[in-house]
Structures are given as structure tokens and as C-alpha cells.
Amino acid sequence: MRMKNLYKKPITNLRCSSWSRYCSISLVILWTLLILGCILLLHLYSNNNTSLNIIHPPPLPSHFHQLQHVEKENFQIPPPNKKRSPQSKSITPLVDEFLDQDSSLRHVFFPHKTIDPMKTIGKGKNDSYNYYYPGKIWLDTDGNPIQAHGGCILYDENSSTYYWYGEYKDGPTYLHNNKGPARVDIIGVGCYSSKDLWTWKKEGIALAAEKTDKTHDLHKSNVLERPKVIYNEKTRKYVMWMHIDNANYAKATVGIAFSDTPTGPFKYLGSQRPHRYQSRDMTLFKDEDNVAYLIYSSEENNVMHIGPLTEDYLNVTSVMKRIFVGQRREAPAMFKHKGTYYMVTSGCTGWAPNEALVHSAETILGTWETIGNPCVAGNKMFRVSTFLAQSTFVLPLTRFPGLFIFMADRWNPSELRDSRYVWLPLIVDGHEDQAFQYGFDNKLWPRVSIYWHKKWKLPLGWNTF
Ligand SMILES: *[C@@H]1O[C@H](CO)[C@@H](O)[C@H](O)[C@H]1NC(C)=O
Ligand SMILES: *[C@@H]1O[C@H](CO)[C@@H](O)[C@H](O)[C@H]1NC(C)=O
Ligand SMILES: *[C@@H]1O[C@H](CO)[C@@H](O)[C@H](O)[C@H]1NC(C)=O
């Protein structure tokens, strides 16, 4: 923008009439100076860029190549079912089919097959060990389906253990006031632990619903979504933030709780409208300097807000930036790679899947730019519906910089407890991608890709420190 004005101003201001010769000479000089200036600026800028971004990263280890394979997903969409609701707001025939409980593809979207890590334990690291099967039923070490929806993972250095927190939804699904949205009464925040990110032991309910007091935020008739937990080194507390709402989503607040141990029970402190704004889908991000941030969908989901927390992580500060203004994004999942910040978000279509977008920024409060759809799959409809899932968290694998686990939820609105987990490799590599919207910078960003796989596993050695 600024560059445009620089060009425009001298031309409109110089009036070349009687002394036109003098004018054209000065114009030539002016243009020459401007062009030289631009070249200098561009040069400085691209040097700067090279040090900030990975323009030419080291080649990824060869075992990444398997993860970057573009996998086909061949299924035929049957002809439209006449009974289908005409006011369906979905984006593709695939999503219509997905939302149809009687679809002949139901077994593809919600396969009955269970993945039971206990069945392969002790059998050595053979080929059936440690594979993720996105969309299949994933059992914990007791043999029950894992209940940690809209979740996050905390790596606890004290115990060298991963903790997976999420909505424990193992109750009946019903429609609020018989018309919607589909809901399950609050049970609480489920907590699971693992050393290998594949075998998960149920630790119990880290923050439980309130059964009797109807005025309590956590009363079972309310809404608790997207719990996120981070550790505060200073206070040595585990701090949980979550979306707290009433059943018609009009309250729009964020709740805060803390605990001395990762498994809880967490002590609930209360809820607030951060910076006096509505807050619905949200996440937390703890930066390398230990400053933590709250990111939340606000202003009727039209704008995302981001702002730092206080040092104890128990409140927001007065600093807040509005980002993605008017873009209507939710389900934020944030990560950082080589000094650049990234966020995956979804659109706002209730429980129905839609297209993911990835956004980037060089400083955490912005300017944020939207890069595009990170999903890579052989099937286009799968690509524009985030593999029929919605982002919730991105987990870095520190042993392999550039490799992350993208965690998403495949919501099942007719039986929310049977919603499935879609975990896939997310890779930031060197093929640059342009921003969607062109600001002054119009910069190239490292490409962020999420690769679809029916089954996949982490590269060997991911957990050796
Ligand atoms: C690998 O483990 C599976 C499941 O336990 C077993 O059925 C299979 O025989 C094993 N394969 C080899 C080569 O050991
Ligand atoms: C660290 O873990 C040990 C047990 O492994 C526990 O006794 C201790 O309280 C933990 N410390 C923190 C700060 O969580
Ligand atoms: C959080 O901070 C705001 C001001 O920034 C203050 O009004 C509010 O009382 C604080 N909440 C708590 C629970 O400390």
C-alpha cells in the first residue's frame, strides 16, 4: 500500500506545462531514485526474510517422504437422497452425504473397526504397531473408546509424559429444546496419559461437571468445550482454559481452572468475557519466552482475538489484537516453527465439516496473513472438508523440526460420543506459498501441508531426546 502511494504522489503533484523540459528531466531523476530505492529495499527485505523464514530448509529426512505421499480416497457419492433436508447449508455433496445418518457411506465416515493398542503391545515393533487410523474407533488401555474431544496435548517434562485433555462426551446426545444444537450434558474434561502418543491410559475426569447447583458454570445443562492446558513454570501450576457457555450459546465466555498435578482435579475459578468481548471457540498458545496467549472467536464469530495472559496465566491482560476481521473463523490451533507463527482454523458451520485455512505471522500479534488450505489428499471433496473433521490442536515433535501432529475432530452430530479423532502429519517445508490476500508485504510463506493417510505412523526415533 505504502509503495503505491510513493509512486502516485510525485506524478499527480508535478504539473508539466511551460517548463516541461525541466519537468521531464526531474521526472527521470525522480524515477531513477525511486527504482534504486525500491531495489535497495527489496534487497534488504529479502535478506531479512531469509533469516526469518526457511526459504531453503535442509532436506527432510527420507522417512518423511512416506508421510508426504498423496493418498487417494476412492469412494463414489451415491445419487442424492430425495428425503434430504433442502435447507442443508453444507458446501459439498460429500458433506451432505456425511450429515445423512442413513447414508450408504456411513461405514466409510464412521467405521466400526476399533484400534486397540493393547493388542499389539509386547509383540515387538512389527508392521502393525503404532499406526494411526484416522476416523476409526481408538481404544484406551482399558479397552474403552477414548473420550477427549476438542482436545489438546500437554507434554509434562517433570514426568516425561504426554497428557491428552478433551471433552468427555460419553452420554446421550439430544437436541437442546428439541430443535438443536445437538448436545451432550457436561460430564467434564477427560484426561489420558501416554509415553508413546498411541497407547493412552485413562487418568479420569480432570475437571468434573456440577450435578446440582444450576447457577454453576459447570452445571451439566451448560456447555464446556475445547479445554486447553498449559504449565506455568513460575507458579508450578497446570492451567486450563475452556469455552464455557449456556445451552443456547448466548453466554459466550471462557472458563479458567488450575491444578498442582497434570491429572487434576482442577480447581475451577470462574468464567469471564475476555476484554469484555464474547468468546466461543478458543485455544491457548505458550510461546518460547513462556508468555502465553488466549486466541478466541469473538464478535459473533466474525473476528478472532489474540492477547497475552498475565504471568500466572489466570487472566488476560489489557493487550488484545483483532485478527481475521470479517473472515468468520473458529477452531483455532496454533503452532510455531523457526520463529514464524501459524494457525489452522475452520469456518463456522456448526458440527458440519468445512474447509480449513492456515494463517501465518512473523510476530504473534500480527500482521496475520491467510495462506490457504493446508489439506493434501487425492480426493478433492476430502480436501475441502478437512477430511470431514475440524481442527483442535497442533502438536510439535521436537525431535523432527517441521513435523507436527494435526489433531482434528470428526464430529458425529447424531451421536456425539462416537465422534472420531483424525490425527495426521502436518509438515512445514520449503515450497513457498503465497498469501491469499495481498498486503504491502505480499510475502512468500513456507508451505504448510496436512497429508491424508488411511494409516500412518510417526518416523522411528521421534521420541529419542
Ligand atoms: C505383528 O503383530 C500382529 C498383531 O499382533 C500379528 O498378528 C502379526 O503376526 C505380527 N507380525 C509379525 C511379522 O510378527
Ligand atoms: C513431579 O513428579 C513427581 C513424581 O514423578 C511428583 O512427586 C512431583 O510432585 C511432580 N512435580 C510437579 C511440579 O508436578
Ligand atoms: C482480570 O483482569 C481484569 C482487568 O484486566 C479484572 O477486572 C478482573 O477482576 C481480573 N479477574 C480476576 C479473576 O482476577
UniProtKB/TrEMBL annotation:
Record-linked Gene3D superfamilies: Glycosyl hydrolase domain, family 43
GO biological process, one term: carbohydrate metabolic process
Pfam families given in the database record: Glyco_hydro_43
Gene Ontology cellular component annotations, sorted alphabetically: Golgi apparatus
Residue stretches spanning the membrane: 21-45
Enzyme class: hydrolase
Keywords for the protein's UniProt record, in alphabetical order: Glycosidase, Hydrolase, Membrane, Transmembrane, Transmembrane helix
SUPFAM superfamilies reported for this sequence: Arabinanase/levansucrase/invertase (SSF75005)
Molecular function per GO: beta-galactosidase activity; galactan 1,3-beta-galactosidase activity
EC id: 3.2.1.145
Family listed: Belongs to the glycosyl hydrolase 43 family.
Stated name of the protein: Glycosyl hydrolase family 43 protein
Organism: Medicago truncatula (Barrel medic)
